[in-house]
Design brief:
By secondary structure, the protein is an alpha/beta fold. It is 42% helix and 17% strand. Strands 3-2-1-4-5-6 form a six-stranded mixed sheet. The longest helix is centred in the first third of the chain and has 19 residues. The radius of gyration is 17 Å and the shape is globular. The chain starts with 6 loop residues before the first helix and ends in a 5-residue tail after the last helix.
């Protein structure tokens, strides 16, 4: 009888390993949660990794103030469904406190302002690691992509690569290290 597993099962197993290792190796980790499909997959994997216990870290959402009300309703329902703790950072609060300057004009966006709010939220709660999903595309873009969890050490600003073993995750970790708002 063959005990081989599918590629998807392998990726799930690797993701669960990284989530558990992060929870074990850091004192106060958090999981970044936008409410998008990558974040939802990550949160479900975390739920699976620690079931039947609750997640050992909070979900951190940076609210731009420009979300549809249904998106916030779904976020709140989802967090309640998986029995997680939710920490919300507010871009509007960052603007009101003078920590960020809102863009003006036709193509104005609050996306860049999320960085300041994220870093402030991380510092206020003293998180020492952030988990986030990253997609890695093969050479030719295809409808399918791999989403891998990445543990970012906030002390060094680099991913914890000791828990990463596959080429996909390592590539995602390098990408995350160079673009992450969590790095310091």
């Amino acid at each position: 009888m063959s005990s081989s597993i599918t590629h998807l099962q392998y990726l799930e197993s690797e993701a669960i390993y990284i989530l558990r290792e992060t929870a074990a190796q850091f004192g106060k980790p958090a999981m970044l949660f936008s409410g998008g499909k990558d974040s939802i997959v990550m949160a479900w994997l975390a739920r699976k990794a620690f079931h039947p216990a609750h997640l050992p870290f909070p979900l951190v959402h940076i609210d731009t103030g420009h979300n549809f009300p249904e998106a916030i309703e779904y976020r709140d329902w989802f967090v309640n469904e998986i029995k997680a703790t939710l920490v919300v950072g507010s871009v509007q609060k960052s603007i009101d406190e003078g920590r960020a300057v809102e863009e003006k004009g036709h193509n104005a966006s609050r996306n860049k302002l999320q960085t300041v709010t994220l870093l402030d939220t991380i510092e206020a709660h003293e998180y020492d690691a952030c988990l986030g999903g990253g997609r890695v595309m093969k050479r030719r873009p295809a409808p399918r992509s791999a989403s891998s969890p990445i543990a970012m050490s906030l002390a060094s600003g680099t991913p914890r690569t000791s828990a990463l073993s596959s080429g996909t995750s390592s590539t995602a970790a390098r990408t995350m290290a160079s673009t992450s708002a969590c790095s310091r």
